[in-house]
Amino acid sequence: xxxxxxxxxxxxxxxxxxxxxxxxxxxxxxxxxxxxxxxxxxxxxxxxxxxxxxxxxxxxxxxxxxxxxxxxxxxxxxxxxxxxxxxxxxxxxxxxxxxxxxxxxxxxxxxxxxxxxxxxxxxxxxxxxxxxxxxxxxxxxxxxxxxxxxxxxxxxxxxxxxxxxxxxxxxxxxxxxxxxxxxxxxxxxxxxxxxxxxxxxxxxxxxxxxxxxxxxxxxxxxxxxxxxxxxxxxxxxxxxxxxxxxxxxxxxxxxxxxxxxxxxxxxxxxxxxxxxxxxxxxxxxxxxxxxxxxxxxxxxxxxxxxxxxxxxxxxxxxxxxxxxxxxxxxxxxxxxxxxxxxxxxxxxxxxxxxxxxxxxxxxxxxxxxxxxx
Length: 373
Description:
alpha+beta, 6-stranded antiparallel beta barrel, 9 helices, 22% helix, 37% strand, disordered N terminus, cilium, Flagellar P-ring protein, cell projection, signal
């Protein structure tokens, strides 16, 4: 485990800039980065299709029966009929699911990217071609048609019972592989009010956003409804597109974010923001290491014995070593650089820091919300 000094070096690099931002009242961001226009969103599409042209790496149709049924249904559209009860045995075909997102205001004829993922037991989709596949929305209507050659970023090979693979072979993309057939209606530009939905609930940000809009328009057209939505009255005349574009470009000065310490217990990552405050406390940190070693021991029978056998046994040696737990005095601090400096004094690893921060929080010396993900 690397030293805490190495782990928190990145925090020290930005500490001065963060402290300066706190003095001036916080950073500024554009409204387009803080909120989105209500009703202007993407719509998820999904479809079931068949990929052909695989080099023997497709579904085993004797196990994945719906792949064979799909091929029979496809061939029947071209006048090819198989005898009843006959299932074609193929290796170059795979059943797939096709997914994509229909952008807001997408018009018929536009092309969008699609993702193709294996549904059966195919070994690879590399080199395959997706046949014409309808993509449906949540209402069951067809909004796009997909077809094209797959781009798979992985590669693999197998021989003699051994195989090797690089990246993932069972999912790929078709750039511009779907053509929009139906537009989704959107009345956001025709409404009397424009609703800006914040990405994160924050009453201070909603208030400052409304103030910035009113200052730019020189009239009280914006009003925060709650910590998530700001309502803006649309102009009766002029271009509403230009009006929304001007609002999205406005800069809003943000309040300091809530004090948080984010801990990823799986990776041992610890992130501290500039709003965290540290009270005075004393911390004792010691290390405990357990070493288990095994040595083979051979036991042979006596030279004159009969029926004896040589036996190989193992001798286990277990050692426990505990380091000295020195008591460190952590001074109170309101600056991120000082907090990092105080924690570096402990000399703890990132994994050990998780337990230390939890103990400091329990003692009431950590003035921040401790979130474990």
